[in-house]
Amino acid sequence: MIERFHPIGVPGQPWGEAERSAWRAQQRRQRSYAEDVLDPLARLHAHWDVQAYGELDYAPDFYPLVALHGCDWDHARPVALVTGGVHGYETSGVHGALKFAADCGSAYEGRINLLVVPCVSPWAYEHVQRWNPAAVDPNRSFGEHGAALESIALMRLLAPLQGRVLVHVDLHETTDSDESEFRPALAARDGKPFEPNGIPDGFYLVGDSENPQPQFQQAIIAAVERITHIAPADAQGMMIGSPVVAPGLINYPVKSLGLCAGISGAKYVTTTEVYPDSPKATAAQCNDAQVAAVCAAIDYALAHG
């Protein structure tokens, strides 16, 4: 018998609609997508074209989905893709993408096409949640796994760019709430026991095990470690249950898991993981680490093709 570790549902039994509704009823808006994301986007017209690529109708809430295209877009050039806020609660993913667009976009004009999607999951951003209102994780819903509206909208945006994306950086965080809230909720939703994995203390990357690109990944680590500390492996040489294959690096089969990092088909792909709850890191450092990761990734891709 599975011990109760979450207030919703019956231990060992996957959630039905009643449990999902109970979970949804507990969620409260804690911040504003319009103020934190849409308003800053409106101030970036000097170097960016703002494109609405869909909308989410989560009555009574309505969210326009917005992407930034470099205003010097040239179809002869490859594309650099930056995605943030696939997990809306991961704050520096959103604000790091916005900061990159505001501070660094002009440095790449004439060199590569930039496409930045700063907040893939606006409802989750406002409610500081990992899932969407249907209790579905957008970052397990890409490709054939498409069950989240957020993921479907992003895949439609990127469909015309297949074969043209050179580098894709997906901005994430690993937080203490992963272990205290989100992983227990996932286990309860799926009717499984909760097995703690621990939280790495510092920045790390998740590469694609089918296309690992270790030199690319280490170039990003080298840039970020000037901003914030890199997470060490645990005593078993692991992070969150996966082997550490190089300093600050683990690999996942991103496509088979339905992760955002698997949708672009880019040669160079990585998922960043910032640790905002560390006593050795500030919110500003987390945002700066995301920006440093994006710049290092694009610089490496431009240098190596």
Word description of this protein:
InterPro entries: Peptidase_M14. This is Peptidase. It comes from Pseudoxanthomonas daejeonensis. Belongs to the peptidase M14 family. This protein is α/β, with parallel strands linked by helices and about 300 residues long. The chain has a single domain, classed as 3-Layer(aba) Sandwich (Aminopeptidase). It has eight helices and ten strands. The chain has an eight-stranded mixed β-sheet with strand order 1-2-4-3-5-10-6-9, sandwiched between helices. Strands 7-8 form a two-stranded antiparallel ribbon. Helix 3 links the parallel strand 3 and strand 4. Helix 7 packs antiparallel against helix 8. The termini are far apart. The relative contact order is 0.16.
Task: Give the helix/strand layout.
Elements: H1 17-25, H2 33-42, E1 48-58, E2 61-70, E3 79-84, H3 91-104, E4 113-117, H4 122-127, H5 149-158, E5 165-173, H6 176-190, E6 204-208, H7 214-224, E7 238-239, E8 242-243, E9 249-252, E10 268-274, H8 283-304
Parallel strand pairs: 3-4, 3-5, 5-10, 6-9
Antiparallel strand pairs: 1-2, 2-4, 6-10, 7-8
Helix pairs in contact: 3-8, 7-8
The outline comes out as globular
So how many helices?
A: 8
Distance between the termini: 54 Å
Question: How many discrete domains?
Answer: 1
CATH class descriptor name: Alpha Beta
- Helical proportion? 25-40%
CATH homologous superfamily caption: Zn peptidases
- Report the sheet-strand fraction: 15-25%
Give the CATH topology. Aminopeptidase
The main β sheet shows up as:
8 strands, mixed
> What's the rounded overall pLDDT mean?
96
Question: Structural class of the secondary structure composition?
Answer: alpha/beta
Strand order of the largest sheet: 1-2-4-3-5-10-6-9
